[in-house]
Amino acid sequence: YMVVDFLWYRRMQGNESTVWSSGFDTIDQWGRPIPDPNRWPSSSGEVGFRQVSSRVRELGLKFGVHVMRGISTQAVIDNTPILGTE
User: Superkingdom of the source (predicted)?
Assistant: First the structure.
């Protein structure tokens, strides 16, 4: 298995090099976490972990992503709509 774990969606500020930075969560228009394209360049263009997961599976491994339940703080701050609601 290869699992992407712990704050993979956190955009770091300045030259900080840790997810504990004062950065913010990278989210889509519905408030769902998406990979930070600065840390995950292959995710640019809203393709997510598609390229990474394909390569991992080519190696014969399974791929997983750790996601916390609930609504992200960034989505609350940005007041994003929830997909499927009016």
Answer: Eukaryota
